[in-house]
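Q: My labmate handed me this sequence with no annotations at all. I'd like to see what the chain might look like in three dimensions before we decide whether it's worth expressing. Could you predict it?
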Amino acid sequence: MKSSFLTSSLLLCILSLILLTSGVAIAATSEADDASEMSELNSSENLAQHQNIRAEEGVASPFVNLQYKVMHFEGVWVVTIRGIIDSELILPATVEIGVPKATAVDWIGQVDAGLDDDPLAVPMSPIEIPPPYSIYTEGDTDIYTVVLSDSHAVQLEFLLTESPVVESTEDGAVQFSYTPLTDVDELWLATAIPADSAVVDPDIRELDGIGPHGERSFARTFYNAVGGQEYTALIEYRSGITEVEQNLNPLIPIGLAVAMLLIAGGGFWYFRKNEHKSK
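A: Here is what I predict for the chain of 279 residues:
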């Protein structure tokens, strides 16, 4: 009888221990599920907030140089927009850069600012900025707000939905526009042209660097560009001409022709004068 009572007591203790352990496990699982749901909810809320915020006025650092470049690559037109802030600004720095509304940005990150005034500066590899991005839509513009922690330059990349090629009397021409968000010291509207070509307009200057197939880049520069104002560049190019011909001012040949005429006239006058003296 005593043995039966001890056995029953032992079984009851084991059963209680099992129930207690199961209860703790269920409670822990429930808490983990709640925490996971809360985390997902917070993540969704943060993502939604990131899609509809913009830096407060005066927080974003202005760009001193803004480069908008279109380039034909593997059958499509690719756009890169690079914004560079003052090299003396201490990082991290908040910046804002705009693209047309609903643009599908393929890449955004920190890139080499090309600041060569520091002898210790070493070219850096691009650093991708992971999502979620801070995006705010204002009118026809999506405004990306990012924080630069490793570089003084940000870059966006996306595909151009419409070809910038336009009709021209030259061998080729592209026309494109960009509207900076705020005032910028220098706005470059640039493109790459075939290796055996050169731009027609001498005011459009060549940029550093050569493309994978020998393409050369040229840009029209707008100084003291005003924020909110649209700027347009028409870049025409001609094939089979040299850089010397491209950079030759059209007034120079006229000047040379006039000089040749003056020299010829002077020589003729000199010889005529000597003929009269000899007589």
